[in-house]
Each structure stands twice: as structure tokens, then as C-alpha cells.
Records
---
Amino acid sequence: MVPLLQVGALSFSSCFPSPRLHRYPLSRRHPSKPFTMAAKSDDPIREWILTEGKATEIKRISPIGGGCINLATRYDTDTGSFFVKTNRSIGPSMFEGEALGLKAMYETKTIRVPQPFKVGALPQGGSYIIMEYIEFGSSRGNQSILGRKLAEMHKAGKSATGFGFHVDNTIGSTPQINTWSSEWIEFYAEHRLGYQLKLAMKQYGDSTIYEKGQSLMKNMGQLFEGVVIEPCLLHGDLWSGNINSGRSGEPVILDPACYYGHNEAEFGMSWCAGFGASFYNSYFEVMPKQPGFEKRRDLYMLYHYLNHYNLFGSGYRSSAMSIIDNYLRILKS
């Protein structure tokens, strides 16, 4: 029997209204395809549910509100419920990246995430993903448990390949480049801050933030002195809209932008996540705090402020620029 679960409102990488759809192509490098493309049919979603999904009857199909990029739907069957997201404009690569991230987190057997089942192409264009449907509780759950479970995931999910991920994915609707690197500072500079700065230059002609950001990237290694950095599996987009709880109160995290990185980078959306003292206390009991954690916190927020600037406009520029200017004042050139 397919596990019964419910995924409620979907959210993508912002505390505010929806980002635009993809504006840049998403590259693919990984040869394996663990979420095999469905054979074309008039309704590949129904076909999968009634075959590999083990259902014999679809009793009800209900839209779920809250998504700003994809259409979300609940399929109730005689063997349980499925959660389905579709997008009529984007091919399967975006959903495959999400599925690979969910699968990686699911396999750590730590924090609860929806189990992904199928990614495929829609016959009239676009794509879909079928996953477990998790029944949510009435609250976002206990922050102390969330902190501990997240730390357990970071501790269990390690990569021998280095920093990056098997595929490029998305952060909101912005491509997130995950080319493997053996050096974290190099990876974060080039594929996180550097990529966002290039987008700001391309989109707004913002040479000021680009040049100051480049200067920060050259000198930010000073913030990591004495720090041991392991490639931990990160959710990558952990804000309040992507955190919920199951009916029994256990934390559930959704809509990832996964990659293997420095565990502290997970807190880059903390300005929009509502993490309190109990969260951090529980987290650091499992993953001890490294020297200079407080000095690096804004560096990881900067990536997300830059992404919001690129997605939503100038309202986020001042926050990003303030972080860059503050670091340039304290770092030695």
C-alpha cells in the first residue's frame, strides 16, 4: 500500500510573491536517470498511478493551492493518496533535480521528506513529478526536534565526491550550478556568489555590486581559518514555507534545492525561517558549532539576498550591498 501523506501549500524560495519562470537554460551532466521517463500516453500520471502506483481506482483529483511556479494536485486512490506537481512550460530537468534531492534526503533516514516516485514529460509539453502525500499537522512543529533532525541529516548525508550535486537544480526559479569541486570556498565563490553577481550584472547592469562582490570573493577565505568543512547534504532552501510537520508532530521539509556543502550554508535563509534558540541549541548538540560561525552567517545569507534581488528586484539590493560592504570593511585585502 502506498504510504498516505499530504503535502500542503507549496512555496519557492521567497517570503514574498512568486518569482518568474526560468529565464536561463538548466544544464545537465549526470548520466544516470533514477527517475525514468514515463512512456508517452494521453495521461502518463494516471497511467503510472494505476500500474506502478498499485492503485486500481482514482477516486478523486483535487487541486491544492499555494504553488507559484507549478500546479499542485492531490490524487486520492483506493490504496492511498499521491501528490503531483505539473508544469506546462518547463521540461523534466527541474523536477528530476527536485526528485534527486528528495531521494538523497529520504535515504538518510533522519528528517521526514516526501518520497519521490516518478518524474516524466507531459504529452502536450511540460513535465510532472509524483510523490508521497503527507498529511500535515496543525502547526509547524517543535523547533528543537527540527534542529536535531536537520543536524542528523547533515551528519548522515556526506559526499565522497566533494562539494556540489549530481545535477544542476534550481533555487526558486534561478538555476543553481552544482559542478563538483574539492574546495568549498572555491565552490561557494564561483557557483553561488559569483553566479548571482553575474546575473545581477546581466539583468541590471549593476557594476557596483558586481565589483564589490568580486572583491569579497577574493578575500572571504579569511572567514574560514581553523574551520573543518565537510560536504554535508543540504536542503538548500530552508525557509518557513518549506518547513511543516506531520500529523504526529514530526518535522517535514519540502521543495529542496539540494547540494553537498558546508553545513552552515543551510542557515542562509534564516532571515525568513524563524529559527529560534531551541533550534540552534539542538542543532549544535549534534553538529558542534565551528569557530567563527557568527562571522560567516551573513556570508551565507548573501547568496539568498542576491537571489531575491535577481528574482524580485531592487528591494533586496540594499540588504545584499550592506552585507558586502560590512565584510569589505573587516577583511584584509
---
Amino acid sequence: MQVQRNNYIYDYSMSPSFNDENSLFNFVVKDGNGVKGLVDSGLTEVPGRYIQPPNQRINKQQAAATSPENMTIDLSELDGPNHDQVVKAIAHAAETLGFFQVVNHGVPLELLDSLKVAAHQFFNQPPEKKAVYLKGVSPSPVVKYGTSFVPEIEKALEWKDYVSMIYTNDEEALKFWPNECKEVALNYIKTSMEMVKRLLQALIENLGVKVEESILDTLLGFKMVNMNFYPTCPNPELTVGVGRHSDMGTLTVLLQDGIGGLYVKKDENSSFGNEEWIEIPPMDGALVINVGDTLQIVSNGRYKSAEHRVRTMNSASRVSVPIFNAPLPVAKIGPLPELVARDGVAKYRELVFQEYMNNFFGKAHQGKKSLDFASI
């Protein structure tokens, strides 16, 4: 089958050659075929543009083994006699790994299953159906379909396609978000709001700071849900699904499918060659929570944003569905004054969150280097 798009003719009955970087970039990024389009074309080996430097590749054998029970928190106990112990467990996870899993979180389990189905439905559409949401042509700035992180400046691309949906209000979501996933994605955001607020309350409470509603509103003013798709990869040992990074926001809620592949760096102070990575094992019915840069800044370094990455698979395509909870772009963020007074020093400067966003999206993934922008 031949398809003409933007003056290029792609023959899907043959595996196209993508040795030329311009034709690869046009096919994957500009025309919206994404990585899935590469795989569907019959690709048998990873193009050079996707091959990561050796020190960025993920060696599954070198990852530390961990049990889901060691990092799983039952949120139903926040309301009972074990409240203090649960808060301590949440805070300990935020202070150390920056990652934990929650069960009995209030998000219906059937909704979680529906989200995974909807993600596959969206990405299994023909390329032209997804390409209508490409940057520059999308009917609304609240929806963006794309691939990799910032492909225009990345030396090695990530093996991932995604669709991002920014939540402003229900009406806009139902009008502009893709039909295949808008209702479940909206439901996911709305049913997770109370959980995220309670987690943030617990974390601020643990800092010995009075939990003002205005603080919560500031830190959780922006919400975006992504559907991420990691197609099967012929050479997973050479690629990454997502490169090493920390999230820029306050708290991220992540739904994994059962395939696995999410890795978190155990010690933020470890250097190349001495790093230990832990795989966050998929757990049916659980949601993964991770600390973002904003919470590290606000807590004056007490809580640690988690450096994490995703490997690719040659056995199956993987989906994940994160909700990024962050301040509104116009909000000012900085260490809480009570903590600066107690610590005697501010480790981060106050800044408008839009400045942090611009810096974050202006570079390829570089671990936690984005935090340097706010450091004093």
C-alpha cells in the first residue's frame, strides 16, 4: 500500500529505508507516523537516530530487585487509627526514592482497565487520524500528539509516542480531547484529584507546616494527562522509551500496564558508573506516585524528585497513563518560608513556574539537571 503525505510517498508493503535522517524525521515527527509507524512499516532494526550512547542504555540485569510490598501504601488507612504511620510511610518514600505505589486510592479499578484499552485504541488508529493533533495543526493548544521528548534538539530519539491533554474545564476537554480517550481520561483526572490533594496535605503536614488551602491550590493548579505508547522494539538493548529525567511538577500519578520497564535511580547523589536503578514492578490495581521538582523546591530539598527512565521491549507494546499535577504557569514557586526560617538557608530561589517550564522543555532529558535552574 502506498500513501502520499507532504510530497513523500511511503510504501507500506515494503520496509522503507530510514538511513537518511531527514526522511526519518519527516516520516516520524512532521508527518505524525510516530515510532508506531516505523514499526508498522516492517522495520527489522532500529535506525541510527534511535541508538543511545552506551552510558544511557538500560541494562535490565543490573537493576536492583524490589518487592511491590516494600513500596506500597494503603491510602484507606489515612482515615483510621494508623494515620500517623501512613503519613510517615508516604514522607519516607518522598524523602528517599521519591517513588511509591498506592492501593485503595479511590480511583475505580474498572476505570484503570478502561484507560489502558483507550490508550491502545488511540494509538492503533491510522497515522492520519492521530496527526490531526500534531503541534501547529491541533484544533486546540490543550491537545498535542507527538513523539520522543523534544525531537528537534535530541541527539538520540526516544522510542515513544504520546498524546497530551491539558485539563482546563470539562467542556473544553469533551470538545477537544480525542474521542477514543476523552471520557476515561477526564474521569481519571477527576477521580484522582482528592487522592492527590490528600497526599500533598500529608507531605506538607509532615514538614511541620500548616496546610493552607491556598498552598494546595497553587501547587496543584495545573493538570495534564498523557497517554504514552511504547511500541515493540527490534533492538531494545540499544534504545530507551524515555531517557533519564525527573518530572517538573508537584506530584505525578502514573498508571502502568502489566508489562513493566519503569526504572528509578536509587541514590540521587550517585554518579555515572556507580548508579543503582530499581524497577517499579507493575501491580494490578495500584497507581504509582512520584515526587516532582516543584515539591523538591517547595520542601527546600527535603523531598526528592525521582530520576527515572523507561526501557523498551521486543515482546509487546507498553502503555502508561500519567497525570502531571503542577502549579499554573503564572504561579510563583519557592521554598516554604517556614522551612527556610527553620533551615537557615534557602536552597532554591523563588521563580515563576512558566520560567521553569521553559527551561525544562528547552533541553533534552538530562537527569535532574533542570533543578540547577532553580538552585541557589
---
Amino acid sequence: MTLFDVYPLFDINIVKGRGCSVWDDKGQEYLDLYGGHAVISIGHCHPHYVEKLTEQLNALGFYSNSVVNTLQRQLAERLGKACGYDDYQLFLINSGAEANENALKLASFKTGRTRVLSASKAFHGRTSLAVEATDNPKIIAPINANNHVTYLPLNDLDAWEHELAKGDVCACIIECIQGVGGIKLATEEFAKGLQAACKKYGAVLICDEIQCGYGRSGKFFAHQWLGIRPDLITVAKGIGNGFPMGAVLISPDFKPEYGQLGTTFGGNHLACAAALAVLDVIESEHLVDNAHEAGEYLMAKLKELQTTEKRITDVRGRGLMIGIDLDIPHKALRQNLVYTQHCFTGCASTNILRLLPPLCFTKSMADDFIGRLKKAFAEI
């Protein structure tokens, strides 16, 4: 049997990680500004994280959701306090796509409606309704193209209100910082206006915080920069620092019913141990504040570089979620960064570098990256 070949790969075998560095099987160290696609929140192989997962695995790795799991209750209490939503309810699953599927399902249960409004260039996952809410026809199979979703420009409040006024919208789902869409930020005016319009027309507001949440923006959630309080919040990626996990934070306006939602693996003992360890480190090492401070520093350095490096046309983002627009395709630059400068970054579209380092990223690492980026520009 061979692997189903759907991933264009760098010819590098990463075998070890510590903090914001990874190493390949030849012993080469790389500075990691990709974080496994924003998954690594507290740093690779943090000792507290390793200790807590090992401890839990030696006790019990898994049992079903048919019994009490006190780790789930501890996580709900800790997460509520950490993010400021202690009056919300928590449903635990396995991934971001699954989080969005369940959020959209809850919205439809509550409203009795089936239409969804999503933003142009949105990415919400690759499963049934999540992929239909994703603005990329190349990954929407015919079986998923069920005409549930209308795509609208981010920040065009009039367009969203026009559709909401039709009275058939189940939910509006937005990333307050678009990831795959190229680090495009929702404005405060748009977010507040959309929240008010959702309330007026009886639709549910979902904030997809899968990539931009969990401290990455310099607040626990990116929407907290915008002064809104969504009905449903979806999280994954950074919640488990690499352990597969997702969750939906659910407003008190939603009343659960037995059997309404379900999962086999979601919220298992090992996953909860991982998530609790992540919160321990985020709190003890003040990583949300660090994401803000280190991110502001890195963006300032990038904007300074923009004044001399004309191939940079824009720098934008919040915290440690940064987009660098280029006037050339990013491929050659990323190849040089990886193979010559030994530095991983992400990308978006054909010409945007996307920076998503672990939240323990430092100002000295930012300086190091700027030096490597300068060399890469000089060599391509």
C-alpha cells in the first residue's frame, strides 16, 4: 500500500522539536514560524506537557463518554475562566472541521433554518457542511454542494444585512482573522454590526477561532479585539498543542438534549490532559501577553524591512498571526527559507507568507527571522 498522494511535500523529515525549533533526521535545526499550521501553541515538546500526557497515559488513555470524566469538567471550568466565557457550555470533539460541523448543526437545530452566510475566502474545514462553508470550489465535492451557503465579502456589512433580512438565515460564520484567506482582519464596525443584525433577524453568530484563537492574536480570542460576544465559538489547533482536539463553546441560550450531539473520541482522557497542560503553560508563562508583545515587535520589524525591500507590499495581522504580501509568487522565497535559511513559514494564496509561530516566540527569534528573510530575498 502507498500513501494517497494529496500533499505537496518539502523533502524534509522532521523528527524532533523543542520550543520554536524543529530538527530533521540529518540533525539540521530549523526555526519554526509555522507551528504545524498554528497547532503548536506552547512550543514543541514542552516538558510540562510531556509530563502530564505521560502521567495520564500511564493511568488511562481512553474510555467512552458513557461515564463521568472529571477531566472534561476541569477543562470546562479552566477554559471558561481563561477565556472569559465561564457562563458558556463546552462540547468536546476531535478537530476544527468537526467543531464547525457541530456549531452549524446546533444553529440549525435552534433556528429551524438551513441557510448559512460565510465570508469570501473563508476556510472552515473539509467535512460535509464545513467544506460547503469554505470558499474554495476545488475542495467542495458535488455531494457537498447543497446550496446551503452564500459567500459575502468580509467587512461589507450592507451585503450581510441584506441577506439576513430575507429571514431564512440559520447562521453567520466568520473568522475574525482569516487564515487561508490571507490574514484578512474583520473590522470592529463590521463585527458589531453583524452581531446586531444576527440578533435582529434571529440568526446565530459563529466565530471560527480554530486558527486565530487560543491566544494567537494577543487576546484569548481574536473576536475579543472587536467587542463582540458570539453565540458559538469553535476552537481546535492550539487547544491540544498537537494532540487532535476541538471544541465548541456554546451560549447559555442553547439548551442541550440527550443524543443531540455525540462523539466517540472527543474529550477523551488523554486529550483533556493535553488541553489542561496547555492551559497550565499559557497561564504560567503568560503566553497570550507574549503573543501580543512579540507579534507587535515582529510586525514592526517587518514593516521596517518593507521600506527597503520593495517585494513586500503589505504587512498585517495581530499577535503571532501575520501575513506578508509579496509582489512575486511566494514559492521561490519559501523554498529558500526552508532549504537554505532553515526556517519554516506558512503561506496563503500564491503570494502571501503566513507566520504562525508557537506563542513562546521571542523578540530575539524575531530578529533572527528578519535576518534569514533578508538573506532569502537577496538570494532569490
---
Amino acid sequence: MTTTEIPAPTARPGRAATTPKHRPKREREGAAWVFLSPWVLGACLLTVVPMAVSLYLSFTDYNLFDPPHWIGLRNYTQMFTEDPRYWRSVVTTLEYVVIAVPLQLALALVVALALKSMKGGKAFYRSAFYAPSLLGASMSIALVWRQVFNDGGPVDNALGNGGWINKPGWSLLAVALLTVWQFGAPMVIFLAGLQQIPAELYEAAAVDGAGKWRQFLSITVPMLSPVLFFNLVLQTIQAFQVFTPAFAVSGGKGGPADSTLVYTLYLYDRGFVASHMGYASAMAWVLLLVIGAVTAVLFRSSRSWVFYASEGDR
């Protein structure tokens, strides 16, 4: 029996065979833009265009009903020189960030360390501790929180010194504790970072006589510093934008005595209650610049305390 060899197909003269790897670069880029187009369109319509409009409105007098009237830098000069409540909102927000962010990260790290050392039930407790991060941002939970710290609530009944909501010195702490309670997201990130630390480091330290506290300071903290930095940046940005807890606890007024008047709550008051949307837009852009500056400072400072094992230095 003889076999007849079938010649392999050849490309037409003057035309190279086209395969996915050999497609023209322009064609591949065109396909990429087709798949990216929904995201690009959404980003432009929902983010870039509104930001551009708000930047324009920040230089206008606009009350949501009449056409905007150009006034230049008057909103900014009024904000910095003629509005004492604006500066009160700035101070309140800074106090909130200083209280809420360190407490939340410390609690998240403690719980992550406890979960790492657990032998069983880790998945259940991880889910249980993460649940507040999903629920805490809702208005319903914030209203429940208000009742917990109100006069006659559980805190009042337990401590017997009245509710915190109506005390200027304690109301902001009640708002901050709601953020601290939502420690699930940074906890999960901390737990993932802890699981990446080699066990050999702890074993070698134990052989050298290092105790648990020394191991924590000399091994856990340096090896976990990139994760700590990541959580610090995210939680700081979120803390500067806090709104729902302060709105619910104070009934949207920022009381008592403006003790819970955080920046975004005052922005809401100026824009949607007083109908000074141009002024509110100027406040929003100042907040954006401040968050950008704070983030840049954090990144700059990270060079001296964040340790990357691949680089072998700080």
C-alpha cells in the first residue's frame, strides 16, 4: 500500500499567513480599545466630565436653580477668610482622622494576629469580623449606632453618665467608634500579610531567645510594614471622606455645638441645604487637594519605615 502525501497548504504569493501572534499592531490595539471602550466611556461620563463641571462651578455662584454666575476666586477667599464654620469642620475632620484611623488599624492587627494563631474555625471568625465592613456604611446601622450612644441607650445604662451623642466632648468619639467597628477589610489584608511571613524567621528568633514581644517588633512589624502602609493610605483617604456616621448621629446638623461637623457634612450643608453649590464645589476641590497632599506625604515618609524584603533595605 502506498501513501500519498498531501502537500501542506501554502500562503498566496505576496501574502503572509496571519496568526494571532502576527496580527498587525494596529489591529491588536484596535481590539483592545473595543474591549476597553465601556470602561473608558463610563469613566468619562461619570468621572471626568462631572469633575470638570464641578471645577467650573467652584468659580461661580450657583444655587441649583439659576444659571451659574462667574465670580472667580470669591468662593475660595470666602472659605478661607470669612467662614469660621469651615475651619471648624477642618479641625473636626482632622480630629476624627487622628482618632479613628490608628484605633481601627490597631484593632484590625490585633484580631488578625489572633486569627492567625487559631487552629480551627478561622474561616467562620474571619467572615464574622468582616461583616461589619459590609454593613457599617449603611444609614440603618448608623441610626442604630445613634440609639446605642443616645440618652437612655445601652452605653448610658452601662456607664450611667448619660449618652455620648448630646455631649460635645464625646459625640465625635461615638462617630469614630463606628468607623473603628468596621475593621474587617484591613483585618483581612493584615491576615493575608501575616500568612506570607516565613515561619523560619520566628523559629530562628526563638532559638536565639527572643520572646513574643521581641519577635513582634523585630519580625512581624518590619515584614508587615508594606501591608500596614497600604492599609494606612486607604483608611486615611476614607476617613477624610466620612459622611454617613456623622450625618446620622447628628441628624445632619453636625451637633452638638458643631462637634460632629466633619468636612463632607458641611459640604453637604452648603451644597444641598443652603443651595450654594458653587461654594460646595470649591470645598470639594480643596478636599481633593488635601487628600492628595496627605497621600504624597505618606508615600514620602514610607521610605524611612516601610521594609521590602526583596530590596533588603528600608
